[in-house]
Amino acid sequence: MKKHVVGIDIGGTKLATVVADKTGHILSKVRKPTLSKKGPEYAIGLLFDMVREAVSQVGLKQEAISAIGVSCGGPLDTKTGVVYSPPNLPGWDALPLKARLESEFQVPVIIENDANASALAEFRFGGGRGYNAVLYMTMSTGIGGGIVINGEVYHGANDSAGEVGHQILLPNGPRCGCGKQGCLEALCSGPAIACRAQAAIQKQLEDEETVTAMLTLADGRIEDVKSEHVLAAARTGDALALELVQETAYYMGWGIANLVNILNPDIVLLGTIAVAAGDLLLDPIRETVLKFAMTRPAEAVNISPAQLGDALGDLAAVALVV
Amino acid sequence: MKKHVVGIDIGGTKLATVVADKTGHILSKVRKPTLSKKGPEYAIGLLFDMVREAVSQVGLKQEAISAIGVSCGGPLDTKTGVVYSPPNLPGWDALPLKARLESEFQVPVIIENDANASALAEFRFGGGRGYNAVLYMTMSTGIGGGIVINGEVYHGANDSAGEVGHQILLPNGPRCGCGKQGCLEALCSGPAIACRAQAAIQKQLEDEETVTAMLTLADGRIEDVKSEHVLAAARTGDALALELVQETAYYMGWGIANLVNILNPDIVLLGTIAVAAGDLLLDPIRETVLKFAMTRPAEAVNISPAQLGDALGDLAAVALVV
Is some CB atom of chain B closer than 8 A to the CB atom of A167? Predict the structure, then answer.
């Protein structure tokens, strides 16, 4: 009986392979740096070895593996299993990742973009359990999203659904990594929060003598202020940091309100920065959603931190095949 | 063999009942004014009679009817079939419409909000045929929406999905009927276009001696300028009307770009005003979507006028039960 699966989590900086049982319990794990500059062939060779290593770590033979799930940055085509130049994986251009893995291991392989796979993991194992309409949103270096409807990832026409971070709120706002201006991501991702914080600190230094705790936390170097410093300073009551948290919650709440009106989710699960910030950020987000969304969908939605934390990457890959 | 269905279209100003065969061909139709001030009991009694009349018009007995589909303004609960005070139907408060009809006619009744039912009709009989991810948007007195995924209406947590007209673009923008500010509907519905046109004409009259063709078309009365006059004047090359069309396309395109990023639809079907305007409005909408949406979903989407025209209301109700 094939009672085990392999999960592969492919990121721009690290690769991970895990073996899990059919209930999603992780039994072994291998991690290596992606060394993305070495290109896809290096990474694929490494992944082949890492899969074998994770399998042998639990004393299994390859024949015990029923399927492989792969969570990878998009864009990618879930039907053909071809990856199309994810921004964090230079050279992975029209790479037939599914075919390569199936050929090597002779088992079915399912490939999914990381935000969608994470959404599915939260549905299967985390905060989305039991809900029919689940929206998961990352809030880290970017703002990605995944939509799970009746237990299945919603892909849209060409696997591009759920790009919730690229809804445009301010058409003349800050430039986004995607090339447009004023996307939610350009306002509320970690780097975007840091950027707004640095500008606000600069202005404060010019206008008054106060020194924000954010600057102290970053050892006095404005250019080193990050979103973590904003949250830490806000917790100590630092006025400027609290303003930045409110501003972030306003944009997040506005964007989520639009999503609530469009998708009417049972639950919105917010990852990473929202998990770290907790109610400090979530409460003003919830208030903004109530203010901006229509009453009926706003009353139906639960806005919560994602639950899987550091296990998310592994479980994202595993969720695809259990 | 029960080879026929009844469709009921309930609007704030008119009621319609039709009999159709299982392929959606309308065989008979009865129309009456809703006289919404008379309340729901009057309308329900009238509907009972109108159903019987439509059935007898085609020489059928009631036993030949297999099901009744009802398209009605929301909010309503599709599972229980209870209608909750639609804005255009005063007094229809927690009205068990499905139960009342099932009790009267002893056949299964399916109730759906009109925008969702219209989306399903476009999927079954109109511009959405053959597509897996269909977004239909009305563009008339309001901007409603319906999402059809793999041939089924997407309802969300509590039948509120698809309120695409209430995504907020300008939080300090014009007041919307829903109570919020700057919703897409408050910028691009028929009345919203008229309102922007009237303000622009007023300003033009104060600033210069030009008289826009819009004003001529409305017999010189600014307060009578409607969205139809904007379109008609734009077709004659009237500069101010063309500006208003461009502005409308900018907001519509912005809103649709957000929807394209979130839902990645195969097709977006735009009703009423967009049908009347054609490429005059659709071309600049398409340009704005290409500018504002991400490349992959923008390349996948087809933005087209809805196809069912005046038949939409009847087919919306029928689509629920064929």
Answer: yes
